[in-house]
Amino acid sequence: MNELIKAYQHCENIIKEHSKTFYKAFMLLPSDKKKAVWAVYAFCRQVDDIVDEGDNPKEELHRFKECFADFLKGGLSSSDPMWLALQDVFKNYEMDIEAFHDMITGQEMDLYKKLYYTDEEVMTYSYHVASTVGLMLLPILAPNTKEMLRQDAIALGQAMQLTNILRDIGEDLARDRIYLPINRLEEAGYSVHDLQQHIVNKALISVWEDIAAKAERLYEQALSTIDLYPIHSRTPVKGAAYLYRAILGSIRKKHYSVFQTKHYVTNEEKQQIISQI
Fold first, then answer.
1. How high is the pLDDT of residue 263?
2. What percent of the chain has pLDDT over 90?
3. SUPFAM superfamilies attached here (predicted)?
């Protein structure tokens, strides 16, 4: 087995382990595009893991940025197979380099900023950590229409990140992070202390639902131009959007238990959603 095949298998194992939703959605792509998605996901995952789980995240992220700079100059300064797979992706597709830089910037924000006060701050963060992934994938999924799809790919990323924020309130709080806009909570009569006490009441639910409604509008925007994707990319993109949007319904069904419960869409529900696309 040659090194490139092994490198792509390494990337596939990463997405299979860490994001069953994305893995399931993008399994429907042609083989070459599917492998390219795995490599991009592995890149993003590595940055995310450095920030969330690294022993010395600032130093590790600095080294990662140096590796990426070397990579862009044509070098492979790391033995990590992800770089080999990504090199093949960059050779075969016109990748958006700025999106890769912006994604690293977004992850770096988590090292310096723990609290978000306004909708604008949350949307800027959501662009950097999630919309950028959509922009990285566009040259793979829709090479001929990527500029026309740019704004709606950004909308889909923001919708997904807002969904993450609404799902992971308790998990983020355990890391001393609050991504819900604090000004909005306080206007509704809900304090940071209430959040720390894991209080679920009408005030929290009202803010949660406002943000969920915004996410759902962004999902609709993103899907309004689905016909501009090549036929083989439409179902994976719709699948990813529908599977992620279904998380909001799961949280509602469980009475907004956002502090202790990890919400997800079951395999049975995933099959049902995919079959209806």
1. 64
2. 82
3. Terpenoid synthases
Average pLDDT for residues 145-166, to the nearest whole number?
Answer: 97
Considering the domain delimited by 3-275, tell me its CATH architecture: Orthogonal Bundle (1.10)
276 pLDDT more than 70? no
* pLDDT, position 36: 97
Q: Which residue has the tokens 């016109």?
A: 94
Residue type, 251: I
State the pLDDT confidence band at 75, using cuts at 50, 70 and 90. confident
Contact predicate 34/27, CB 8 Å: yes
DSSP the chain: --HHHHHHHHHHHHHHHH-HHHHHHHTTS-HHHHHHHHHHHHHHHHHHHHHHH-SSHHHHHHHHHHHHHHHHTT---S--HHHHHHHHHHHHS---HHHHHHHHHHHHHHHH--B--SHHHHHHHHIIIIIHHHHHHHHHH-TTTHHHHHHHHHHHHHHHHHHHHHH-HHHHHHTT-B-S-HHHHHHTT--HHHHHTT---HHHHHHHHHHHHHHHHHHHHHHTTGGGS-HHHHHHHHHHHHHHHHHHHHHHHTTT-TTT------HHHHHHHHHT-
Check pLDDT > 70 for residue 169.
Answer: yes
